[in-house]
Amino acid sequence: MAKKNLYFVAIVPEESVREQVHQFKCEAADRYGSKAALKSPPHITLHMPFQWRDDREDQLLEVMRSFSFDRYPIELTLDGFDFFPPRVVYIKVEENEALRELQKDLCDHIRRELNIFNATYKDMGFHPHMTIAFRDLKKTLFPQVMEDYSQRNFQTKMTVAGFTLLKNESKQWQEVLYTG
Q: Are 65 and 150 in contact (CB under 8 A)?
């Protein structure tokens, strides 16, 4: 039986934004012991993780390359911090219709071409954000973390011209394909 790998599709920001968000992740790891977010580059998830057979990776890459989107570039604004209790801290992405359209069209493409149906977390819909801390953040620390990040300001803009396919290798997410 062929080995299956874990993949997900995301927007990985340009280097300057990536560095700023990575610093927030490192700080959350140092101050609050939440290191899980460091296993992936800063990103906005477009399609949740899914399994795909190793011996069919070429097909997956071809399907990702065949997706076309005519609304690039998309200008996004990252604006402040917010929370998904009881353990997630993230940077907010301002509402953006072109981003919503990209996510919907891409997930429809993946569903149609690859028969993969888990586009969003527990079917809760698309809520674009960049995670700073999550599953390994202790619930008992969450009120303190919320107070800390609620008092902070962070705002920047970024340009999106494509998306990235990431693959889990040795418990780290690696960028496999960028379309843009």
A: no
Name which of 9, 1, 3 is nearest 116 in CA terms.
9
Secondary structure (DSSP) of 109-159: HHHHHH-----SGGG-----EEEEE-TTS-GGGHHHHHHHHHT---EEEEE
* 166: nearest Cα among 12, 18, 17: 12
Residues of the chain with pLDDT under 50: none
Query: What does the pLDDT look like over 13-41, one tens digit per residue?
Result: 999 999 999 999 999 999 999 999 999 99
**CA distance linking residue 166 with residue 172, whole number of Å:** 10
The Cα 26–Cα 124 span in angstroms is 28
- Whole-prediction pTM value? 0.94
Give dist(CA 103, CA 120) in Å, integer.
Answer: 10
Strands 163-169 and 172-179: antiparallel
Return the residue matching tokens 């906005």: 44
User: What is the reported pLDDT for 119?
Assistant: 78
46 three-state secondary structure = strand
Contact 34, 139 (CB under 8 A): no
Contact 145, 137 (CB under 8 A): yes
User: Residues 135, 36: contact at Cβ < 8 Å?
Assistant: yes
